[in-house]
Structure formats: structure tokens, C-alpha cells
């Protein structure tokens, strides 16, 4: 086993962090009824997610420990503030557009389709490698996919449009 470089140490620590959260969810899911695959209880999904997170963490740690270290990469000197701000703005816009503003302003929400479209478009602006046309296409596909999954397949009552 080779000595870990900075990148390997960071990956191993990230793996340990994920393993800790996965283990937490594994134990927390036991407090709820887990059930089985045919009749899952409320703890079934958190149990699966916790197990997958621990598995992913083990793979990350093994890769960090077993792979030969590469040349040291220069440490990032700047935080990607633009991307962070756009992702946060996308999440806030979705929350406002899907649920409205409550008592602050008389706005009841724009519906699932428009909220997903706006959120996906704003989040796509964080990636400088895609064009405006590609970003609009991805946002439209995400809106259609959210309609298909949440309304058609899961039969959730979510307003699709502001007038619905």
C-alpha cells in the first residue's frame, strides 16, 4: 500500500464521512418498521440508502488506499462562488415556485412543470460547458420527466400549472 498523497487523503476522509452518514441511517432506519421488499415499511428506503452509502464509501476508501498516488495537484485557490450561488438560487426558486410565498406575497405557486423548468435552467447556468439551447432542452426534459414520474406514475396531487 502506497503512502497517500493529498488527493488520496481527501478521498479517504470523504469516504469515512460518507460511511459515517450511511451507518447513521442504517441504525436510524431500524427505529422504524423496515418490512420487506413486498411490503416495505417506513424504514425500508432509509435502510437501502444507508447501505448504498456505506458501500459507496467503502469503494471510495479502497480506491484511495489501493490506487497508486498521482502527482500532487495544486490546491484549489478559489471557491466556485458563481456555481454555488446558482445552485442555491435554483433550489430557492423551486421552493418558491412550487409552494408559493405564503403570507409574504399573494403568490400561490407556479406548478410543478414551471418550477422544475426554472430550477433546471438556473442550475444549468452553473455549467459553462453547455449552450443556452442545450440548457433549455435539458430543463424541458427534466420538467417532462418530473410530470411523468410524480403525476403520471406516482399519482401525486401536485398542481402542474399555476391555473391547475
TrEMBL record:
Keyword Nucleus found: no
Domain named DUF1468: residues: 13-159
Superkingdom: Bacteria
InterPro entries: DUF1468
Pfam families listed in its UniProt record: TctB
Keyword Membrane in annotation: yes
Regions that span the bilayer: 12-27, 47-67, 79-98, 104-124, 136-158
Keywords annotated in UniProt: Membrane, Transmembrane, Transmembrane helix
Protein name stated in the entry: Tripartite tricarboxylate transporter TctB family protein
